Amino acid sequence: MENIIQITKNDIVNEGKKLLDAGAKFVTAVCNDLDEKLEVTYFFSANRGVDLTCLRYTVGKDEEVPSLTGTTLSTLLIENEMKELFGLKVKDLAIDYGGHLMLAHDSPTTPMLKPKKAEAESKGEI
Amino acid sequence: MMRQLILLIATIVVAPFIGGLLFGIDRRITARLQGRFGPPILQPFYDFLKLIGKERIAVSRLQFVWIYAYLVFMVGSLLCLVFQSDFLILVFLLGFAGVSLVLAGFSTKSPYSHFGANRELLQIMAYEPVLLLLAIGIYAQNGTFLISEIFNQSRPLIFSLWPLFIAVLYVLTIKMRKSPFDIATSHHAHQEIVKGVITEFSGPYYALYQLAEWYEIVLVLGIVALFWTNPLWVGILIALAAFLLELLIDNIAARMTAPWMVRLSWTVGLILGVLNIAYIYFTKGVS
Amino acid sequence: MALMLPTILRNFFGGPATRMYPVQVREPFENARGHVTFNDDKCFLCGLCATKCPSEAISIDKEKRLLTFYPARCIVCEVCALACPGDAIDMVFKWRAPFYHKPVEVHESRGKRPRTPM
Amino acid sequence: MATRTTVPFGPQHPVLPEPVQLRITYEDEKVVEVVPVIGYGQRGIEKACELNEYNKNIYLCERVCGICSYQHSESVVLATEQLWPLDIPPRTKFLRTIWAEMARTHSHLLWLGLFADAFGYESMFLQFWRIREKVLDILEQTAGHRVIQSVNVVGGVRRDIDEAQKKTVIDTLNVVRRESDDLVNVLINDYTVKSRTVGVGVMTKAQAMALGCVGPTLRGSGVSEDARLTKYSAYGELNYEPIVETAGDCYARMKVRARELFQAIDLQMEALSKLPEGEIAIKVKGGPPANETVARTEAPRGELYYYAKGNGTRHLERMKIRTPTFANLPAVLILLPGCQLADVPVNIHSLDPCISCTER
After folding, report:
1. D192/B180 CB distance under 8 A
2. Taking CB atoms and an 8 Å cutoff, what residues of chain D touch A75?
3. Is the pLDDT of residue A125 over 50?
4. What are the Cα distances from residue A43, in Å, to A4, A16, B258, D76?
5. Do D102 and D329 touch, CB atoms closer than 8 A?
6. Residues of D numbered 148-177 whose beta carbons fall under 8 angstroms of chain C's beta carbons: which are they?
């Protein structure tokens, strides 16, 4: 995969805005569970959708991250989804579904985290 | 007197059979126009019998009062036609029936029912003036509102009232709940308001509503047939042709919006009616 | 509005395009995938179908020489039929009644593993 | 006078056979506010993709969506192949393109019918679906099934199109083109259709870009963007240019899809005539290497993004599916407020929503 730009979590709003102002379109965001940390990648497409640019940052699991919804509403659903499925702590969402966009009231929380990770966490707590 | 009693009972018993059969034919022809087989012609009766046997659940007590009212007014209106009494009374009874249906819609809490009732009101607003103008047209022509006088005239009404006949065809479309005017409720208005004014009707009450619809179709086609009463079979043929025309129109038009319907009915329908009556008075005044 | 008129008139006089279904049944196409059937005489319980099945509709008990098939789980993907080395699985296109209870088919395999390696 | 009514539009509603809830607040019959609520159909397919072997993902991901199922299987196969990357035979690429366009044909016919139904044109709805049956028939003849084709595997395809089938396909497509030509002509020029769709639900180019819309929704607003421009499968060798309408209303979105229908038929014809000889599949051993990739295909509803990450085993580390409706759903927020109740279904259908695939 080409065009991965590593940034820090605080730059995401500025960098994203820069890309959007240059005529790019937000595509989606992907969250990956690296054992200790979460890796978040924002995809933007430009040049009639042919070129793909990725903004990637890595954060700890309990760190808060800024939201792009202040800049563009198109990230609304995916940021809510990442918040629910991975427990990514996104702050300042334009519409916060409160963890019930995808999940119901009695669903498991953060189901997309890797199981071995969850085990390790529970062992650490004991 | 005896003859009248027989006629009364015959009307009440026979009219729903004709109406149900017409609905069956309607479904069959519509299916064929769309390239399907369609249900058996007697399907409306099967539906009716099944609905009658269902559990009685009224969403509100008032609802079934209004549904009975709708049925009774509709039968009364039809009797007006069969006994050749006053056309004006017929129109007002039909209006009462319509309002009863609206109130039945309003008597439940469902928002779809309310939207449907609102639209039904708009429909009444759209077709009632045309029917009133027809009454005035008949009066202008014959000097009386009595339907029996129409039968006494040898010259069919359609010759002098043809613009009103076109307007009445609009009414027929609205009353048959066909595209482009199937806005308040129809067999398939599900996209916007589910079933509209009859969303909350169920079981035997829905069956009563269907019964009233059967009376209604006979009544409305009867009004169309009034345009050629001597001999009556020509009028009936005209009515059946109008019925088939509605089926065609239903299949070549999308559903329009309520404001569009009111606009069309008030401009074209009313202008045609008013010009028609003005012309009659004008020619009568001169002669 | 009149633009639609030729089409619906053609429909009216041309007869329905639909079929009277239970009376008239269309023959399945030659290439169409159908329901899975097992030939117990050929099956030698190699287990390839069970490992490749995406919906875990087949389970194999090698000791009792049993193959258990759960038709309600089957997604008719043809993977097992293609994977089978002994030609013991066929796809037969035949109408099947809807299930009221989830059935379980148990097959006793009698096939012999061929000497020559596959 | 103006009374406010909040109507829950769904999740069980005869308009949309899809589990989406739109909490619409009406003032009389005018929409003033709308909140989309999804999540009624979340099936955890992304998670299941991590637990499955990569071969089995194809059959799982095909079931993300019932209508664009072909593009889902194509994307998941492309994503997995790009992890190695594998060298796919040219005939396979062409076959995949043919089936993809066939799936687009049937999806667009379905949508045109549903859209006609949205403004109450039942006879038109049935006519479009009647034509669609023919497309489904050729899909069944060539790929083995009407809707869930299950024809892709990692490394190739499972079925070939021989000369006899080629002839059937071409004959059927000619019939489909002729019959849809009549109907699309009605749809485009009919007075009642025009009065229900022209100027309804206008979305400007800037709004569409800002909301991240994809597919015909975006192209109806005048943006020439299409995943087929990335030349995946055989699109690089076909004569392809996206179809664009500039008005941005429901009528424009309908026209985009109507024209794409004929374009899809043309593309199939072209691909069938250029179909090269050769293998249709290659053998694949082992699991995809530790690598990450994005596969982008153009589903009938818009661009489909598959992000895949391998780890050297037969199980994928992560699979992310972004479906077209997921990107198009925020458009509801600007399309609906201010429109009439009668236009709500028209507006919603003009996006071609597929909620179950949105939630995966």
Report:
1. yes
2. 212
3. no
4. 9, 10, 45, 18
5. no
6. 148, 150, 158-159, 165
State the ipTM, two decimals.
0.81
Report all structural domains of chain A as residue ranges with CATH numbers, in order of start: 4-115 (3.30.460.80)
Does C54 sit within 8 Å of D183, measured CB to CB?
Answer: no
CB atoms within 10 A of CB D246: 11
Interface test with B, best of D189, D192, D349 (most B CBs within 10 A): D192
DSSP state of C1: -
Strand, helix or coil at B99? helix
Per-residue pLDDT at B193 exceeds 70: no
pLDDT, tens digit, 9 for 90 and up, residues B116-132: 888 888 888 888 888 88
Chain B residues whose C-beta sits inside 8 Å of any chain C C-beta: 29, 31-37, 248-249, 251-253
Q: For residues A20-41, give the mean pLDDT.
A: 83
Is position C12 within any domain?
A: no
Kindly state the tokens that stand for B226: 């009034």
C82 and D190 within 8 Å at the Cβ level: the answer is no
Question: Which of B44-48, D118-122, D292-296 has the lowest average pLDDT?
Answer: D118-122
Give exposure, B228-238, as e/b (b: 16+ Cβ within 10 Å).
bbeeeeebbeb
For residue D5, the SS3 value is: strand
Nearest residue to D264 (alpha-carbon basis) of D145, D106, D81: D106
- φ/ψ region of A54 (left if φ > 0, alpha if ψ in -120 to 50, else beta) reads beta
> Could you give all domains of chain D from N- to C-terminal order, each with its CATH number?
44-328 (1.10.645.10)
For residues D119 and D345, is the Cβ–Cβ distance under 8 A?
Answer: yes
Domain that holds residue C76: 28-108
Strand partners, D322: D305
Taking an 8 Å cut-off on Cβ atoms, the answer to whether C4 and B35 are in contact is no
Instruction: Give me the amino acid identity at C19.
Output: R
Which carries the bigger pLDDT value, residue B64 or residue B212?
B212
Judged by a CB distance cut-off of 8 A, whether residue B199 touches chain D is no
| Neighbouring residues of B42: CB distance < 8 A, sequence distance ≥ 6 | B20, B21, B24
Give the pLDDT score at A121. 55
Listing DSSP states for B169-231 in one string gives HHHHHHHTT-TTS--S--TT-HHHHTTGGGTT--HHHHHHHHHHHHHHHHHHHHHHHTT--SS
Confidence (pLDDT) at A126 = 43
Positive or negative, the CA dihedral A110, A116, A121, A126 is positive
User: Which of B100-103's residues contact partners 24+ apart within 8 Å by CB, and which partners?
Assistant: B100/B66, B100/B67, B100/B69, B100/B70, B100/B73, B101/B66, B101/B67, B101/B70, B101/B197, B101/B209, B102/B197, B103/B62, B103/B66, B103/B69
Per-residue pLDDT at D17 = 67
Give the C-alpha separation, A95 to C116, whole Å.
Answer: 66
pLDDT of residue D1 exceeding 50: no
Inter-chain residue contact B258 with D342, CB threshold 8 Å: yes
Provide the CATH number for the domain around residue C58. 3.30.70.3270
**Domain locations in chain B as residue ranges:** 2-29+40-136+154-282
What's the confidence (pLDDT) of residue D247? 85
For residues D108-123, average pLDDT: 85
Is residue C62, in this structure, part of any structural domain at all? yes
> What counts of helices (H) and strands (E) characterise chain A?
3, 6
